[in-house]
Amino acid sequence: MDQWLRNTNVVKVLALIIGIMLWAVVHMEDSTLSGTASNGVREEQISNVSVTPKYDSGQFYLQTVEPAQVILTITGKDAALKKAMNASNYSVELDLTKYGKGEYIVPLTPVGFPTNVTVKISPSSAKVIIDEKSNKQMPVTVNVTGIPAVGLKAGQPIVKPNKVTVTVPSANIDAVESVRADVNVEKAQSAISNKVRLVAYDKSGKPLEMATINPAVVEVEVPITSPFTTVPLQLKLVGEPPRGFSVASLMQNLDKVTVFGPQDILNRLEYYEGPSVNLADLKEEKEYTFNLDIPLSNKVTQLDPGKVEVKISIVPSVTKTLEQIPLSIVGQNDGVNTKVVLPENGKLNLVVEGAPALLEKVKAADAQAILDVSNLPPGRHELPVNWNLPTFIKKGPQQDFKATVEISARQ
How many CB atoms neighbour CB 143 within 10 A? Predict the structure, then answer.
């Protein structure tokens, strides 16, 4: 070995080899540095990252955020970069906690990234429009759709609760027109009871997407019943009290009744005939009280209520003469002339009987004396006089009136 080292040629060769090796090492380091962009650091991009606003959603409404998505450029060493790219809890935050109603340009902040990477957001800020929220109390309306089973009808819906609070941006508070629940009763045979989501609508009937409703769901019950209608209840009065007594008053505790039955029957109802009361049985001065069942009739299936209380006051009668009551002719043919010849003045006096308080108010104009000439040929005819008198006023005794009419062909 010593001999080799003393040989100048060997030393030169060794020096050359060592120089080549040093050059190679330095060249490899330079090559590595130049491929990693500044000492092993590189960058990656993430597109379509959503902007996350941070604000008081109970008080404010975020009308506009532009842009809603941004591009992130992340710079760092390979290991840190991989860790940042694989993280799932990062976000781009738009902090609006110190802002009120208005229009602003607010910087964006990266959140959840490792400290050993650099994050650049493009664009770096967002334009926002913030509006305050307003509340409005609204009644709940129910839109009943569909047709129940044959012969049945949807009744008045019951809503719990029947009022809700609608929250919208203050600029849209006047646009809230209604809050509605939709219930389908198609072919239903019994009451429909559901929890239904509410929707707020504007004046044109379009849903208000920005509206928040509290509570958002209500309980709705739609009764399914036979068709029904509510009409006046008419008592059937038979006869009249015996001579010397009259009805002073008649009161019933209800004047209307709800009638259930086939729709074609209900369509023809103007009133419902209730139970009958025979006035001829009321033979003494007193107040009579009756609790009467209202009868079912003519395919009616149900009545509500099913009973009526009737109070009738009977008092001693008094009499009064109604003078100069004109005779009225009914049933006259268009092709003839008809006139009263007896009595000559065409008027009658009538003694009437009734309760003192009622009879005091009766006048001659309240009574009608009627002659029916239906189907009579030309000539003279003696006819009975029919009387139409106010309620609970009756004709006095021993008054059988007749009148003579003359019928002639019209010239």
Answer: 13
